[in-house]
Amino acid sequence: MTPKIVLQKNRKKRLEQGHPWVYASEVQHVDGDVAPGSIVDIHNHQGVFLAKGYANPASQLYARVLSYVQDEAIDTAFLIRRMEQAAAYRTRILENPSYCRVIYGEADFLPGLIVDRYGEWLVVQILSYGMENLKPNLLEALVHVFQPKGIYLRNDVPVRRLEGLPEETGLWYGTVPRYIDIVEHGLHFTADVYEGQKTGYFYDQRDNRAAIFPIVKDAQRVLDCFCHTGGFAMHAARGGAEHVTAVDISEAAIEVARENARRNQLSERIDFQAANAFDFLREAEQEGAVYDVVILDPPAFAKSRRALPGAIRGYKEINLRGCKLVRDGGFLVTASCSFHMRPELFQETILSAAFDAHKILRTVRWSGAAPDHPEIAGVDEGHYLKFAIYQVFHRGT
């Protein structure tokens, strides 16, 4: 018999509004034995069935929703249906669905599962105990739906330890090359799927990278800080920028970026530097440098709520210096991928930086992740990426 979770009477009705998580504080009592990863039925305090999911009693995130149908079996056939729905959505909305995030966890009703597609190969992250328990079924379903040459596991994410799972990487199925070629907006990139950040490439910024084309077409000087493997830098050069300075602290990322520039015949227009971006921005300001466009796309500064105060200081510093480095009428491109940095707080931080820099900002674009990273409406936890383009004007003294 499937264990049953009964929820508190006075909880917020988030589950009924489509939220895919049940927190431990919302649980009134449990009928039956629930081991980590167990499939459970979720009921309200009156005994009305709400959803079916999997649970982890050791986690504050007690249960995650898989289905709203009580008698639906959670098996390989179920996973195939979910994956086919996810693939069909990408085929409808993307120009090239062979290179995208093809399964995005809760937003595709497969909580705890991330799958990025690199042409004939898949890179998978399993983030929860429930999905870990479904591993044999997952593999069978992935092979059936996508028919890949190989699947590589990138389970090297700290959230697995919160679930009581070890971090691991390695080949799961077939063969997967370490470096895979990607074509985006006519540019060729190399993704390191074994050791690159996330699963090797940042699909979530795809549309935002294209969004800079209009603002760089007449630019003489562009600065791209936290450039990683050169995504924004090469879009800037391809879009018409005369010269791009691209900075990242990782020597390995810079080397991949240089190779990407060579492949796209853009090496003469991009100067890649392995340096601390905070130091570079500070020194550039002291030297009186001026740029037509400054791009700031840092890694997550706040990976927990406790880290938020330091993250706010970090975002304010780089945006303050970025504002000061942009010529009058030029553009600031800035982003945050920290979930705990909520959109309104990120905007407040940018405006505070602009005030201190004696600048006025005009919003050109405010957006989030590309549509292969969809969000369930009303689920704030899914809204992590904030991206903005501002035109920058001097305010005087």
From TrEMBL:
InterPro entries associated with the record: PUA, PUA-like_sf, PUA_sf, RlmI-like_PUA, SAM-dep_methyl-trfase, SAM-dependent_MTases_sf
Keyword tags: Cytoplasm, Methyltransferase, RNA-binding, rRNA processing, S-adenosyl-L-methionine, Transferase
Entry EC no(s): 2.1.1.191
Residue ranges annotated for the PUA domain, each copy included: 3-88
Main location: cytoplasm
Places the protein is found: Cytoplasm
Gene3D superfamilies: PUA domain, RNA methyltransferase domain (HRMD) like, Vaccinia Virus protein VP39
GO biological process: methylation
Entry GO MF terms: methyltransferase activity
Pfam families: Methyltrans_SAM (PF10672), PUA_3 (PF17785)
Signal peptide per UniProt: none
Protein family membership: Belongs to the methyltransferase superfamily. RlmI family.
Stated name of the protein: 23S rRNA (Cytosine1962-C5)-methyltransferase
